[in-house]
Amino acid sequence: MTDLPRRAVTRTAKLASLPLTAAGRTALGMGKRLGGKPAELVAAEMQARTAEQLFRVLGELKGGAMKFGQALSVFEAALPEEVAGPYRATLTKLQDSAPPLPAATVHKVLAEQLGPRWRTSKFRSFDDRPAAAASIGQVHKAVWRDGRPCAVKIQYPGAGAALISDLNQVTRVGRVAAGWIPGLDVKPILDELKARMVEELDYTLEAKTQARFAKAFRGDPVFAIPEVLVSSEHVIVSEWLEGVPLSQLIASGTQEERDLGARRYMEFLLAGPARAGLLHADPHPGNYRLLEDGRFGVLDFGAVKRLPDGMPPEMGRLLTLALAGRSQEVVEGLRELGFIKSSIKIDGEALLTYLAPFVEPIRHETWRFERAWMRSLFTYVNDVRRPDWTMGLKLNLPPEYLLIHRVWLGGIAVLCQIDGDVPVPEVLAEWLPEFDAGAVEPI
Fold first, then answer.
1. Is the Cβ–Cβ distance between 265 and 290 less than 8 Å?
2. How far is the CA of 200 from the CAs of 6, 293, 304, 416, in angstroms?
3. Which helix (H) or strand (E) holds 51?
């Protein structure tokens, strides 16, 4: 890895190679089968090679291409198990790692952003080897001038130009991905990525957001947000959080760790809006840690939804009404918010029947979020043979709820990867405004 590929023609050619080489491997696999090689072995080889190339291409390109890969990786829980195996490790790897930039490039950025004497004026020591490398930046571990371990987040040179190029071309990858994940509409993911990318490039804005989170949770016994030490347009230096990433917990965590990680993960999605007026909008597991002291650490604040008044109270209120079976009030509430357009007629009881699988976790004292359940939801939504299949087509998503919807969909996908038990009604009762856990007796 020498530098971030910037030329649009180069990036486009690399992205285009994904579907083309997948087709080539299909032809090669057919030839092997005709030559007598077992079909199962050929299929396994093809899937492994495709996964390897996916990581290499998206990882090298970084930018929007890798960001798209990270967005897809949280949905691997929805993949059919026979398909998920070869891709799971590769997609998950995209969540918190990528081929790093060379030290010379890193030093140049730091000199431009923190001054020519950055190494001696800001740090006691600086590790040239990146601790993590992701979509638009990489992180180095260092020791701050006062002796505190710190994380130095550096934006890749040319990241802005790369994003513009990727977001115009990444639909090529989207067509490939759509075939992996039944029911996943890639277009809204791409649209949301486009809307948030500009904000994520602004490290000054991200540093302010992180500082706001850190202030809201300073001294908290449950959650840990690293304090910002210094920031600039392309660099953020903040406290180092040592812990077990959720991506590692997903791969090899104990059930006790999974249960704690899943609960804290769900709690923070709600605690952020309640305490800081901000919804953390980048749900992939690489952004979260279980610390040695038991706290839940949170990183990367480039993508957020500003909710100064917390989560919309109508969410908790309508959820409570649905659990209580008050169907007509649910329809009226959804219509007022724009989820049901005025021209659409909906039977309340039929709507609650359609929504039943989605609210099932709240009807239980604890719920195990697992891949099989999420796969069943995707199958349910896309089964055109069901009499109430058209109900989903009658529901609308107001623009102001788009990011909330995406974060929660991605969050549930991550919970299913963690595979932990969560006391869902208890968590919602504590953090979701106007939700009444007493509306339904938990099973």
1. no
2. 18, 30, 9, 26
3. helix 39-61
